[in-house]
């Protein structure tokens, strides 16, 4: 491990621990306005700042725009959309099969009626918020509107905030470990990225009621997600569509929770083990499609190669 990477990990993980401890000591709820502000301003950008310190400046080449003519532009814009929407489709199909067809309680089921959507929204957002917002649209309208909104959010505000994480994990850390090959490199990034969330997961972030199991689920989710995001980074040569994909997922996760309200967060939730497995499968497909099967002797070479444009 290089000195640069060690410094980055110490700063980003240490910073997260300090901010998390501050939230805990002050008793600030994560879903309160002060909690949201602290998370957005102090917690989420910490990998970006840690990378700037470790590298003593910013790497502008990581923000490159599409190259290769129209094909390059299309790939740049659609790679994150295709990856995230593939996840949405697979996830909803998995919940449909597990909950509706097989009747496995952990999967719950899909909310298809307005009554089910209202009940799910009340459990997620609170009854007061649902009453203030009015009745939700039909499930298909909610999904389509959410997908369009996710694209816009991913390329704007959500992507901007996601860059606070992506510049560190898929920027500096990926550049430092990709020679190990996609499997080992993404496992390392997934563990580090997942543990970076630990100080707030212990306080109920993403997995309320599962402080310890939530950390395990987050490490698994971050590992699967990292395979997808590094594939986009290598395919496009830029962190911009990577941050867009991250931002799109953040926007769509809420929609998935509304459409599948009976799932268990650590196992069958979008950020649970089911979500981790689906993202891992999508990421593996993206890497396999680009490189074919990676043998043990080809791992380092594959990690250094860029995906074809």
From TrEMBL:
Q: Pfam families attached here?
A: Rce1-like (PF02517)
Documented EC number(s): 3.4.-.-
Q: Does the keyword 4Fe-4S apply?
A: no
The keyword Transmembrane is assigned to this record: yes
A single GO molecular-function term is: metallopeptidase activity
Q: Which residues form a coiled coil?
A: none
- The UniProt transmembrane annotation reads 7-27, 33-53, 73-97, 139-164, 185-205, 211-232, 239-260, 266-288
Q: Which keywords describe this protein according to UniProt?
A: Hydrolase, Membrane, Metalloprotease, Protease, Transmembrane, Transmembrane helix
Looking at the record, the residues that make up the CAAX prenyl protease 2/Lysostaphin resistance protein A-like domain are: 157-252
Q: What is this protein called?
A: CPBP family intramembrane metalloprotease
């Amino acid at each position: 491990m290089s000195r640069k990477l060690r410094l980055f990990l110490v700063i980003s993980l240490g910073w997260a621990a300090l901010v998390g401890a501050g939230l805990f000591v002050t008793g600030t709820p994560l879903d309160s306005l002060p909690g949201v502000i602290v998370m957005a301003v102090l917690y989420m950008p910490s990998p970006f700042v840690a990378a700037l310190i470790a590298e003593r400046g910013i790497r502008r080449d990581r923000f490159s725009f599409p190259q290769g003519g129209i094909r390059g532009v299309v790939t740049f814009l659609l790679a994150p959309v295709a990856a995230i929407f593939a996840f949405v489709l697979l996830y909803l199909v998995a919940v449909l099969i597990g909950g509706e067809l097989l009747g496995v309680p952990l999967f719950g089921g899909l909310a298809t009626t307005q009554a089910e959507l209202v009940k799910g929204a009340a459990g997620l957002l609170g009854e007061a918020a649902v009453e203030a917002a009015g009745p939700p649209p039909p499930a298909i309208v909610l999904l389509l509107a959410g997908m369009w909104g996710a694209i816009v959010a991913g390329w704007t505000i959500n992507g901007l905030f996601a860059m606070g994480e992506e510049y560190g994990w898929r920027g500096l850390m990926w550049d430092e470990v990709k020679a190990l090959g996609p499997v080992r490199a993404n496992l390392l990034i997934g563990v580090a990225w997942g543990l970076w969330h630990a100080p707030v997961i212990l306080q109920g972030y993403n997995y309320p009621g599962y402080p310890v199991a939530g950390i395990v689920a987050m490490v698994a989710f971050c590992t699967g997600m990292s395979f997808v995001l590094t594939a986009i980074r290598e395919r496009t040569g830029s962190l911009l569509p990577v941050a867009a994909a991250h931002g799109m997922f953040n926007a769509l996760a809420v929609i998935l929770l509304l459409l599948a309200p009976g799932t268990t967060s650590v196992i069958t939730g979008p950020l649970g083990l089911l979500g981790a497995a689906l993202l891992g499968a999508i990421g593996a497909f993206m890497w396999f499609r680009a490189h074919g099967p990676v043998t043990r002797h080809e791992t380092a070479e594959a990690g250094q190669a860029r995906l074809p444009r």
